[in-house]
Structures are given as C-alpha cells and as structure tokens.
Amino acid sequence: MALMEWSERLSVNLKEVDEQHKKLLALVNELHDAMKSGKGNEAIGKTLDSLMAYVKTHFDFEEKMMTKYAYPDYPAHKREHENLTTKAVDLQTQFRSGKPVLSLEVMSFLQNWLTNHIMNTDKKYSPFLKGKGVS
Length: 135
Prior knowledge:
Layout: H1 15-36, H2 41-68, H3 74-96, H4 104-131
C-alpha cells in the first residue's frame, strides 16, 4: 500500500497544481518504497534527489503564479516553502554525508507536511486564483 494516495479532498481545483501535487505524492511514495524494500543508498539518493528537484520546480511554479496575480498571502506561503526546503536540504546533506537520516519518522513528517500544506495553505489560494481566471 502506498504511503500517500491521491484523493479529491487534496484537489485545489487548479489542473496544473493538482497534477504537480500528484507527482509529488508519487515521488514521496517512491522514496518510501525504496527505503522499505532496502534498496541501496545510491538508489535512495537518486530518488531523494528527484524528489528535491521536483519540490523546487513545484514551489517555483506556485510562487510565480502567486506573484503574477498578486496573491495577498504570498509572503506567508513562501515562508512555508522556505521552511520545508531548509529542512529537506538539511536531510539531503546529512544523507549524502552518510548519516542515517531517512527513516519512517521522516517519511511520516513529509506525508503530514505535504497533506497539511495542500489542505490548509494551498487550498487558500485556489478561490483567489480562480477569481483571476486561472483554472
């Protein structure tokens, strides 16, 4: 069973954002599966790198959209992105240095953070952006 499964409750009703969120969930699941199945550090590292690269792509997309349409809660939203990015880069750095930092607790943190961020923070911008004609 996947760690994270897409459901309509996670939808922000913006097609491109929903597609990106689905990909993020898939990458978190891929990392979780690599850890659970005991894949080597090289395979786990590649999956972690893919996840980190896509997180950056997704955050950049959201932030450009929010600035383009002058979303009023942009500064707070960006801070959330920065906080997760800082934690994730730290984990990635520790992993690369050989420290055993990837654990089920870390996966649980990622799962909870992503779910809460989508449900509480991302869903706030949806009505605003839809009102600006974004679909």
